[in-house]
Each structure stands twice: as structure tokens, then as C-alpha cells.
Prior knowledge:
The complex is a heterodimer of chains A (489) and B (492).
Chain A: H1 8-16, H2 22-40, E1 43-46, H3 48-63, E2 75-79, H4 106-113, E3 117-122, H5 156-164, E4 169-174, H6 180-185, E5 189-192, E6 212-217, H7 220-230, E7 260-264, H8 274-289, E8 293-297, H9 305-320, H10 338-349, H11 352-365, H12 371-391, E9 397-401, H13 417-421, H14 428-433, E10 437-444, E11 450-456, H15 462-476
Parallel strand pairs in A: 2-3, 2-4, 7-8, 7-9
Antiparallel strand pairs in A: 1-3, 4-6, 5-6, 5-10, 9-11, 10-11
Helix pairs in contact in A: 2-3, 9-11, 9-12
Chain B: E1 3-14, H1 53-65, E2 69-70, E3 73-74, E4 77-80, E5 90-93, E6 100-101, E7 104-109, E8 112-125, E9 129-134, E10 142-148, E11 155-161, H2 168-185, E12 197-207, E13 217-222, H3 225-244, E14 252-257, E15 262-265, H4 268-271, E16 278-279, E17 286-287, H5 290-297, H6 304-314, H7 318-325, H8 329-341, H9 345-363, H10 374-386, H11 391-402, H12 408-414, H13 423-436, H14 438-447, H15 451-463, H16 470-482
Helix pairs in contact in B: 2-3, 6-7, 8-9, 8-10, 10-11, 11-12, 13-15, 13-16, 14-15, 15-16
Amino acid sequence: MTPDGPTIVEAGRRLREGKTTAVALLESVLDVAQLTEAIVHAYLTIDREGAFASAAFADEELANGRDRGPLHGVPVALKDNMCTRGVETTAASQILGGYLPPYDATVVTRLRQAGAVIVGKTNLDEFAMGSSTENSAYGPTFNPWDVSRVPGGSSGGSAAAVAIGSALGALGSDTGGSIRQPAALTGLVGLKPTYGTVSRYGLIAFASSLDQIGPLTRTVEDAAVLLEAVWGHDPLDATSYDGAYPDPRAEMGRGVDGIRVGVVRELSGEGYEPEVETATANMVDRLAGEGAEVVEVSLPSFEIALSAYYLIAPAEASANLARFDGIRFGLRIPGPTTEALMSATRAEGFGPEVTRRILLGTYGLSAGYYEAFYGQAQKVRAAIRADLARVYTDVDVLVSPTSPTVAFEAGARVADPLAMYLSDICTIPSNLAGDPAVSVPIALDGRGLPIGFQVMAPALGETTLFRVAAEVERLAGFTARPVIDLVAS
Amino acid sequence: MTWEPVIGVEVHVELSTRSKMFCGCAVDFTSPPNTNVCPVCLGLPGALPVPNRRAIEHLMSIGLALGSEVSSRSVFHRKNYFYADLPKNYQISQYDVPVCRGGHLDITVDGETRRIGIERAHMEEDTGKSTHVGLGGRIHAASATLLDFNRSGVPLVEIVSRPDIHSASDARVFAQELRGLVLELGVSDARLEEGSLRFDANVSIRPAGSTGLGTKVEIKNMNSFRSLERAVDHEVSRQIGVAESGGELVQETRHWDEEAGVTHPMRTKEGSSDYRYFTEPDLVPMTFDDAWISSVAATLPELPAQRRSRYQEVGLDGRQAATLAESPPRIRQVFDEATGLGADPTAAFNWLSGEVVSHLRRAGLESEELHLGGAELFELVTIVEEGLVSATAAKEVLEGVLTGEGGPREVASSRDLIQVSDATRIGEVVDAVLTANPDAVAGYRDRGEEKVVGFLVGQVMRQTQGKADPRVVNELLREKLASQPGGTPATG
């Protein structure tokens, strides 16, 4: 089958024209899920009951002239590391099996206020640690474009759901590329907004200083719709940005004439698939053709960003994941002492990648190692920010591939963590800097697998980011959809 | 060899803010277990901390009162360790950039004042409360642990002294002085029995006269002044014992066992000090500008130490000043008003610390219920100075004032206590007494019997119902005796 569902914007138009209803939209995405879940496994939980109740309520409100805006009545999915009151939230970990949060994450509250219909909770790498969605304790998600391949990660479930049409849009979280890389690998638009613009309250933390929630959608405009629904200051998150927010739509459609585009030299070369490099270069040429001033820029600190990331993120994770101890919620493996109970619970409850990162982070923070590891990584982070500040005086945006490769075969990198970590080499710098970045699908490779193009901007640069992303989208004219053989698998 | 103890004290003060440090839950220890809790203070997945501005201001007050420097920028850190009553298994605390640095607290022992340096004062959150139930309530024999998270996230200030303390009793006085200070600032209830004030101490010994530092032992789990003093005392003796028997002291953390009156080494893991501190990424750095610091400084009340020196400046001695400084606010107010009007400070102090306090005690009254204003105390002191009433009668006057009979002059006259010092009137009585007691007069005149004077004074006082000014009586008697017919007394 090929999904034929509407985009968020189209669905909203049909709803308001009376050509469909929220319940009908929900039924159609659930039908897709029904057909594809056994093959793709995008969802961990589908909340049929809750979703139908919201859809019916949305129809009632719309019928009564109460219009909550472009998401009203639109079925969307949430990565399963965002807390939903009374709906199982596991972060794809055994340690949270059966966990029912007593509260909604701020993004969930805001989606509900915008009238969105939450279909369910999507699969991810356990605690968002991974780049393939193979690290889920509940089984991997597969790429709708080729179900022998991974959808990327860690927001692979959200990506697969939107790609196949079992949701019209989804929220993911991006700590080192976990929205953009799966978006690239599944032919979607994936946005990591400026750090602090989307509340993290209710997002199960991986690395607090890097985590950011953002949308995965079919179009750039859909990304703006979802972003506008969830971002904004939140008093429950002390790191939430409390100033004026940019308007993502303000310059969409204005083209790129006069926009200064920097091509990052360090994000190319060895390890990059030729077809990815070619597609990227072609897009850069087309942008130049539209009047963009293209220059090659060098950011030497990007070379060591990956190493810094793999010290900072695990260090923060080692503390963030300490609360999963079997005492107050989630899995508990009994033991003769409190310490034994905690040890047994954690040993049983965490998967191997999570365990690896906790150990890595704990080690890096330990007395005697702190300066050499965590302290040093913070210096690299500062250097990346300084490098970026320098180039952003000369360019408006930076561009690169989103991922060095297209979707890889399931299992190919499971046994080789370093190869897996390299999947995020292009996306990590924006997280370390706190800057916004977006992946836009631009082409299919020879095997029919999507290639993503990354646009990065300085903090709060979403207006320019969306302007350039919209032009990339227009120039690429990417309309391909995955084809799934429902029988074969 | 004589040993000198070197002691630093860490005091944990629970602040009495309405809500917790990082969430909106009430700070209330009277509630049933686990009722003042939410996702944040239970450490549920996804919950985030938001700092309590009032708590930070309370810490600033403490720092300013201690003469600390309030940093222009301060950050929170995570202190990582696993414990069942620590919901996140890390405590949000401060590490190398505390809110307050430096400062001092003066303690006065036996009239001698010693200055104890303050290292730092920082902000952190409290843990939940574990109750071990089962076999005898002892940690290692417990069969179950009950957890109450009402206390989890309550704002806690840690004040760390420099190692300037050299005796267990000074450690206690330091802690008591600090309690007085936080009470005065109104930032904590400082109820020891509820654990809102807890103490740790760092103890080492060195040969008296040397300036080096010995091996430091941290002792924990003291929650009363008495246990702080006992624990330090015990630890100092233990260390001296080890040193003198040729043993070697090890740097360690020891647990004070109140019942047994001894310190035990804690299990290595409990005492492990690798807390893997790192900057709390869920919070942004705090910045303190001058305007904020001065607005907090403007709210500071006068502190005990400041009061003590003010009282000494007006003329009280050290002990009196210390007593008054620690007296209830109402007593100090009466003193300040009376001396402000011109009352002699020592006299005012003596009335307040003596008669007034014992009156309150006898009547079972709180000082706020005191029926005596500053103006009335001033009047009382004045009429005694003027000789309007005798010192003895003045006590009666005060009693009348305290029981609402009116002002001192009013009571003195209504109770007929006004002293007669008019020489003419007293002279008449003296003459009458001399006439009525010729034998006594003769005894004085002829044999120089000095005791006769006392007897005659007594007679005059009796005739005047005690209202005659004894000084005037004495003077007149001697004068008139000397001029009695028969000439001067024999002199040998």
C-alpha cells in the first residue's frame, strides 16, 4: 500500500469544509495502523478510547463554531517519552513497563488545548538513546520505505507513523539528532527548535541540557503548525525561554534571494555516502540559483563535537536515570536490602545501551576523571558555540546532510556502538549549541531511500530557518511516499 | 601531651517558607505522610524543578546577617548518591559557587567573645524521611522501611563554619547562637525536636600550640545541642585516646549513636564522598544584583550580636547586655523606650530582669501580656532617683502598676508610699523621738553607743510608717544628737 492520508494543513481544510470529521480522520489513521503495525511497529500504545473521545469532542466543538485552530481534530502521535496522564508511558524501557503517569507533559496539555487528537505513544530507542529505534525493550520499529531497514532514531516510531500515515504528524525529542535523523531516513520534515522554546516538563529526561521536543511532519508548513501549538514559555521549566518568540511563518515563501548560506566543510567526506553528498551539493547549487549567497565555511570544533557529546549526554543521563530504582514506581525486583533491590531492579530494567551510557557518564563524572572528561567536554561545547558565533556573523544559515547515510539495514550497527554513534555526526553540533535545525527531504537515492538536507540557524533564528526550509522543500519537490508490501512481511 | 581540638560545625537549617524549594507543595510537618507531594518532589519521570525565590532570599538574609558576601552569580549542582528517601537519587545542592561566602558569628562564653569564621552558606533541598520498622528500629536490623516524602524538597540551608572552634561546648554555643539568629531573621522555626535544625561536625586534634591540622573525622546525626556537644566531646576523647596509644587516625565519617553515647564508623558506601557533582542542567544560574541584595538587606532585623553591642554602648556590662539581647522582644522594647526617655540603663535593666521577669513568672504570663510601658518604667526609675519612694516601696509601686492600678506616681500616692524627705517634717518626728528616748540619747552622748543611732532611725521610720527618707533621717538624727545638751560624746 501507499499511504494517501492528508497533511495536517490539508486535513484542517477538509475538516472546515465539512468534507471530513475528526472521527473519520482518526478512523483512517487507525485503519493504517491496523494494516501496518505488525510490519512497522511504530506504536507502543494506541489509545483508541482516549483518541475517539477527543475526536468526538473536537467534532462537537467544531460543529458549535468553537475552532481551536489548525490542529483542531487532527490525529497526531507522541514519542513515548512524553508523559500522558493515565496512559502508559515507558520510554521503551522495561523499567517503566506499565507506568501510568499522574500528569500530562506541558506539550501534551498544549496539544489538547489546540484540539489535537492524540492517537498513541510511539516507539523509540530506550530512553531516547540510539539512532535506529532498535534499542527499544519492546522490539524495533522498521522503516516504511524498506522494512528491512531502520527508521533512524531515537524518534523512529514517530517518524515511521507519520511516514506511513498512522498519524498526520508527531512529536519527537532531539538530544543529538533524534528528530532530524529519523526524519531524514523516512522522508519527513523534522525540526529541533531552539533549546528552551519547547517546555521539557513531562519529557522523560535523557540529557537535560540537550533535550528538545519538536515536530516530525510531512511538510514544512505542518512543522510550523505543530511547533506553534507547543512552544512558548512554561513556568514549570526553569530553562524555558521567557522572551519574544520568532514567527516561523513570517518569511516563508519569500525565497532565498540574498540569504547567506554556509556549507559546513567538516560535514562531508569520509563516511558520507556519495549519493548523499551529491544530493546535498545539488540542493546547494539550486539555492545559489535562487539567489542565495553560498560560501563554504569551516567549523573545526565540529570534528570533536561527537566526542564531547558522548561525555556530556551520558553524564547527565547517569543522574537523570538514577531515579529509576524500584522504590516509588515502575519495575521492582525485590532484594534483601534496599541496595540489593535497587541494583537488581536497575540491572534487570535497563537495556545494554542504556547501561553502557550510565556507566560511561558515571565514569566521566567520577573524582579524578571529571576534569579530563566532563570538564573537557564542556570546554569543547563552549568552543563550538564560539565557532558558530563567529560564522554566523558571515552567514544566515548553515547547511549539510542530515545524516551521512540513508537508512541502514536493521542489525547492521547494533554490535558496533561507534558506527551507530556516527549516525549523529551532522546533527549533534546544534544540540550542543542550543540552536534550531531542521531536516527537509530532498531526494531518493538509487535504492529509493530518502535523503535529508539539514538547515541550521542561530538560536531563535526560526524565522530564517523556516524561510530557507520552505524554499528547499519547494525546490526539491519531494512528493514520494513509501510503498509497503503488506503481504511479504 | 596536651591536645587541642579543632572543630568545624555544619548546620542544616530547614526554612519555613510556605512552599517547597522546587515545587508548590506545602511545607507542613503536621500533615499525614505523603500528602504534601507532587511529581517534582517525588522525583517522577519528566518532572522539573523551579526554584523558590523566597527561599533564596531567606538564604541571602542569613548570609547578610553573618556578614557573608552574596555572590553576584551562583549555580546549583547535582550531588549524586543512592538512598531510598532521596527520590531522584541526587540532591539539588550547591558545590563550588555557593550563594554566600565568608562571614563570621561571634559567640560569648563566660563574658568572653570569640569570633567563629563562616566558610559558606548554601541552598539545597531536604530528603524524605525514612522510618525503619521491625526489629528494634535499628537500621541494620530493620525489616521494613517506611518512606514519607512530605519533607522531600523542603528548602534547606547549610551553613559551614571554619575550623575555628576548640571545644565541644563552644560548638554547642555556636549552634545555639546560630539558632537564635535564624529565629530572629524569621527564616526558620528552628525546632530541634522536628529536625528543622541538624548538625554535623568535623573534628580533629593537634598538639596544643601547633597550627597544623590533624586527620579530620566527620561526625553526623546530631539533632540537639546536647547531642552535638556530647558527640564532639566523645569524638575528641576518642581521637586523643587513639593518638596517645600510638594508633593512627583515619579520615572517615562516623555516625553518632545517641543512645550509646558513642560514634561508630559508617559503612564505607554510606560515607563515600564521590558525589560526582556537576552543574544542575535543569536550572539556570542565579544572578544577584545590588538592588536585590539591598532590598533583602533592608528587611533585616537587628540581630542579637548587634543588640549586645548596642546595649553595651548605652552602659550595660557584657553579661547584662547578653541577657537583655536574648530577652523577649517586648522586654527589649520596654527597655529601649524607657532608656530613650532618659531612664538609667542599669536601673531599667535591673527592674526588667528582676522584678518584672519574676512577676511574669509568678503570674504565668507571656511577656507580650506585660502591663508596663517604657514611659512607666522611666517614671518608676525617676521617682526612685528623686527619692519620692524608697527602693522597697518602689517594688510595691511596680506591683501596683503591673496589676493595672495606674502609673507609678499614681500608685505611689494611692498606696500612700511617697517617701517623706522634707527635713522640717522629719525634723519634728526626730525631735519627738529624741525626747521620748532620753536613755538612748544619753547612751550615745555619754558612752558613744553607735547602735543607738540605728535604734533611733528605726523609731523615726516606725513613726512615719516607713515613708521617711532614711538618708534624711540619718543625717538629721546625727545632727540633732550632736547638738543635744551635754556636749559631744566621750571619745575614750
